[in-house]
Amino acid sequence: MPINIPKHLPAGELLKEEKIFIMDEERATTQDIRPINILILNLMPEKEKTELQLLRLLGNTPLQVNVTFLNTASYVSKNVSQTHLETFYTTFEHVKNRRFDGMIITGAPIELLQFEDVVYWKELEEIMEWTKTNVTSVLHICWGAQAALYHHYGIDKFELTKKCFGVFSHDITDPTVNLARGFNDVFVAPHSRHTGVSLEEIKSHPDLTLLSASEEAGAFIVISNDAKHIMVTGHLEYDAHTLGDEYARDVEKGADIDIPVNYYPNDDPSKEPMNTWRSHTHLLFSNWLNYYVYQKTPYNWS
Asked: Which of 164, 176, 220, 241 is a good FRET partner for 192, with 20 to 30 A between their CA atoms?
């Protein structure tokens, strides 16, 4: 089944080229089924890249998915045109009276700031509180995961001595949990962050379960016991070249940055990196949509 996206969204043509099954809003309204409604709060600076990454994954399920893109009203992104935001995005004020089956809160390159120092923190807190009653399940990614752990469970982040940057091996603690269905016992995933969260605090919290962790990268997938919140501290949604783009950007800025770990063949940046995490990315998103969104959302919210 397809993913339903705005008719002229730029990512649409790229998704078609990749043979991802999509349809525009006009065609979707003629289908007599109950679609899944997903709200995406896109906090990443390069919004169009993130749109493509997430839509590619949401479109690979047997469900029809309606997507609404959300941006903050208290901060306007400098890396995307205002026309793009006005055409394809809305703000919380316009959706707060609606209910959504699922929501994704992305990462943001601001993890070295204290949460309260983030310009849109109060707005994000309001949105996260609203999800308790208006969203069935929320998938939080990277900084979004750290924000959720802090807001909902009081677990703060801490600065790492060295950036966690590369592709790392992870273990699954319980493969019978629906979110991990189909996962290998050991799999790899990308990380790109300057901060971490305490494994001990997560393990000892009565409302949380640590589903996956890495010796090098720490806590990776954390799920609340009521399945309301899923926190993923890395970037399974990244393309093969995303870490390389970030590395090139930092080198150009003159930053003190090492090459991404386990990323380039033979650690040679001149060689083409390969996506070694794609299958688990699709598993994570399809399992989330099926077991935590579709299976749990009432047909009629009222």
From this structure: 176
